[in-house]
Automatic annotation (TrEMBL):
This is Peptide transporter. It comes from Aequorivita vladivostokensis. Residues 8-240 form the ABC transporter domain. Gene3D superfamilies: P-loop containing nucleotide triphosphate hydrolases. Keywords: ATP-binding, Nucleotide-binding, Transport. The keyword GTP-binding does not apply.
Amino acid sequence: MENQSLAVQIDDLTVAYNYKPVLWDIDLSVPEGVLMAIVGPNGAGKSTLIKAILGIIKPIAGTISIFGKPYAKQRKLVAYVPQKGSVDWDFPTTALDVVMMGTYGSLGWIKRPGQKEKKIALESMEKVGMLPYKNRQISQLSGGQQQRVFLARALAQDASIYFMDEPFQGVDATTEIAIINILKELRKAGKTVVVVHHDLQTVPEYFDWVTFLNVKKIATGPVKDIFNDDNLTKTYGINYKVAVNK
C-alpha cells in the first residue's frame, strides 16, 4: 500500500445531524485503482460518508482530500451516481439529455455541448445498453433503465474516481451484471470506484477492497484479507456468518 498513491484520504472526519454523530472520527485511505465496497447496517453513515467527501454535507471536523487536494479543486476528476430515491424522475428530460449533463464539467458554464459532447454521450449510452432509449423521457424508463442512464452520465464525465450510492438497488439481475461488468472495466482502466453496497454475499465476487462502517470505521483493506466473520460481527453487532467464495 505504501507504493500505491491515494485516491481519497480522510482524517478525523466527524459528521453530526442535530448534534448526534452520524460519522465519528473517521480515518480512511482509499488507494488509487481499487473497486471498493462500503458496507454496514442501515444508519451506519455510508451515504453520509460519500456526501461528505463530495462536499454535499459539511462535516463538523476533519479533512478530506482527493488525489492530494480538496474536492473543490478536483471536481472534474470525480463522478457521482446518487441513490435512485434522491432523483426527481418526473423532470421532463430525455435519457440522452441526462447523459450529456456528464460532459458539462469539461465545458465550463459558457459553452453549450456540441457534436463532440453528443458523441461521448451516445458512446456512454451504448456501453450501458441504453442507446435505443436515448429519446425516451426518463420518467418512462424502468428502474433498472434509469440506473443505467445515470451510470452512462458518470461514464460520460471520464472521471478518475467514481462514487456510487447503491447502484444495484431495485435493478434486475441482468442490469446488475451489466453494471458490475462496467465497474470492473473502469478498475481495469485504472479508475477508482467507491460503491455503497448492501448485498454482503456478492462482496467477494464484485469487489477487491472493502470498508466496514458503523458510525466509526471498523476496518478497511483488501477483501481477501478483511472480509471475514470477525469484522462482520463487529460491524453488524451480531454473530455474523457469510459464505465467502474461497
